[in-house]
Design goal:
This protein is α/β, with parallel strands linked by helices. The chain folds into 2 domains: 266 residues, Aldehyde Dehydrogenase, Chain A, domain 1; 189 residues, 3-Layer(aba) Sandwich (Aldehyde Dehydrogenase, Chain A, domain 2), CATH 3.40.309. Helices cover 38% and strands 21% of the residues. It contains 14 helices and 22 strands. The strands form 6 sheets. The protein has a 7-stranded mixed beta sheet with strand order 14-15-16-13-12-18-19, with helices on both faces. A 6-stranded mixed beta sheet has the order 9-8-7-10-11-21, with helices on both faces. Helix 1 packs across helix 7 and helix 2 crosses helix 6. The protein starts with 8 loop residues before the first strand and ends with a strand. The model has no long low-confidence stretch (mean pLDDT 98). It binds nicotinamide-adenine-dinucleotide. Nicotinamide-adenine-dinucleotide binds next to helix 7 and helix 8. Nicotinamide-adenine-dinucleotide (NAD) binds next to helix 7 and helix 8.
């Protein structure tokens, strides 16, 4: 069985730890016990990482597509070989169940293999010009990237943050979440072991605001890629603007789910309940606001609650656990505040609404219904295991409710009417729409939002393009 590994940063290929640096205690969310001490960067560490990233960019921008593909494919192979260890580490530090952690490994494997093909398709173009003249448009890597990954997908988020810049020919400094560092280090190690030059990808940890201010103030960094809350995303956008740094922002969501009277209700219930409580609801594309046509509301609500009450909550390492703890102490506190506010305003609590056990950060799968629209939980991202069920009359009112919030990441609709499927897909303000499905991602598809959910995309060809700039060369 894998022990939790010793923690360090990776700067210029060196494992950096100790030396009187401040530390952050990494906690197992299933037990509340400290499992590791993470060294935090001092300004000199960040300066060293920046200087290394500058060198790394000069090395990697000149790499051939074959070299990049070999590294990405090699790293994918190593992740497959190491999947048991990687998944266990992710569960230990984030809490999700082992099968969920394994899916993250496979997401990275798929993405790295996709990018390994994509590096051969970074085409430019030649423009039509009078004889003797030539104009070409080429794509060049944008430069060193600062990438900030959150804790909810401890393997998948770092995979996205590292894979795209490396495919594009950039260097990257990754600051993954201090809560889940070992998973991120495991992904980086696969790339380094697959032959990535040590200057090209590094990992630092620190006080998030110190690290982001330091890196974004440097002229070395040419792109910021951030996944996290809208409030921090706005703050980082302002810092990036001071240096005209290009950004990809994958921010919060408040996933609406439109359930129409003509839907296959049983299939919708089976799919949505599983999806809602995945990773204890701590998923940016989590289905959250269930906007249910009133003709099927009672049936949908009762079927939902029945399925929720059957969910087995437990330590993610235990076989049979279907939902693990929340990832950190802040999340159950947020659940208590949001559910308390909703019930005080008259919402009905149909399941959950309480912590589970007295160790770790477990919170029961919860369901609220008939929630007033001004309840906090219907306006801010709950990021937890709570479903919000409200009845609505007619398509127009349902779409209006879906678009009411400033978020626009993922939206879902359940209807068997083909014309309505098209209307809903067109009208919903969202980066991703799932019609009769929750499978809204894939290595070859762009993943990202609109409005307050951010801009730019990860995955797909778009993920690599986001790390490239165009250059037009005109020859007379
Ligand atoms: P938070 O907003 O403090 O942190 C979110 C992430 O951003 C963390 O990984 C954190 O390390 C990082 N971060 C925070 N301040 C930063 C800074 N100044 N510079 C760089 N990185 C910074 O909140 P939290 O308590 O960790 O999570 C709460 C909320 O964050 C959730 O309710 C959810 O809305 C959002 N969140 C979203 C995602 C996502 O996938 N979009 C992931 C995790 C958290």
């Amino acid at each position: 069985m894998t022990a939790y590994p010793a923690l360090h940063m990776v700067i210029d290929g060196e494992r950096v730890a100790g030396g009187g640096r401040r530390t952050h205690a990494v906690v197992n969310p299933a037990t509340g016990e400290t499992i590791g001490e993470l060294p935090l960067a001092e300004p000199a560490d960040l300066d060293r990482a920046l200087e290394t990233a500058r060198k790394g960019f000069r090395i990697w921008r000149d790499s051939t597509p074959q070299q990049r593909a070999a590294v990405l494919q090699g790293a994918a192979r190593l992740m497959l070989e190491r999947q048991d260890d990687l998944a266990r580490i992710a569960t230990l530090e984030e809490g999700k169940t082992l099968p969920e952690a394994r899916i993250e490994v496979m997401m990275n494997v798929g993405l790295f293999n996709f990018y390994a093909g994509e590096v051969f398709r970074l085409y430019g173009r030649t423009l039509v010009r009078p004889a003797g003249m030539r104009s070409t448009v080429t794509h060049e890597p944008v430069g060193p990237v600062a990438a900030f990954a959150p804790w909810n997908f401890p393997l998948g988020n770092p995979g996205r943050k590292l894979g795209a810049p490396i495919a594009a020919g950039c260097s990257v400094i990754l600051k993954a979440a201090e809560e889940t560092p070992a998973s991120a280090l495991g992904v980086l190690q696969c790339l380094l072991d697959a032959g990535l030059p040590k200057e090209v990808a590094q990992a630092v940890f620190g006080v998030p605001d110190e690290v982001s201010r330091h890196l974004l103030a440097s002229p070395v960094i040419r792109k910021l890629s951030f996944t996290g809350s809208t409030v921090i995303g706005k703050h980082l956008s302002k810092l990036a603007a001071d240096n005209c740094i290009r950004t990809t922002m994958e921010l919060g969501g408040h996933g609406p789910v439109l359930v129409f009277g003509d839907a296959d209700i049983d299939r919708a219930l089976d799919t949505m309940v599983t999806s809602k409580y995945r990773n204890a609801g701590q998923v940016c594309v989590s289905p959250t606001r269930f906007i249910v046509e009133e003709s099927v509301f009672d049936r949908f609500r009762d079927g939902f609650v029945e399925r929720v009450k059957a969910i087995r909550v437990g330590n993610g390492l235990d076989e049979g656990a279907q939902m693990g703890p929340m990832a950190n102490a802040r999340r159950p506190e947020a659940m208590e505040r949001l559910i308390g506010d909703a019930t005080a305003r008259g919402a009905k609590l149909l399941a959950g609404g309480e912590r589970v056990g007295n160790a770790g950060f477990f919170y029961a799968p919860s369901v609220l219904s008939e929630i007033p629209l001004d309840a906090a939980v219907l306006n801010e991202e709950p990021f937890g295991p709570v479903a919000l069920l409200n009845p609505f009359r007619g398509e127009e009112a349902m779409i209006e409710e879906a678009n009411r919030l400033p978020y626009g990441l993922a939206a879902y609709a359940w209807t068997q009417d083909g014309k309505r499927q098209q209307r809903v897909a067109r009208e919903i303000e969202s980066g991703m729409v799932g019609i009769n499905t929750t499978m809204i991602g894939g290595a070859d598809a762009p993943f990202g939002g609109v409005k307050w959910s951010g801009h730019g995309a990860e995955d797909g060809p778009e993920g690599v393009m986001a790390c490239l700039v165009t250059k037009a060369v005109h020859e007379g």
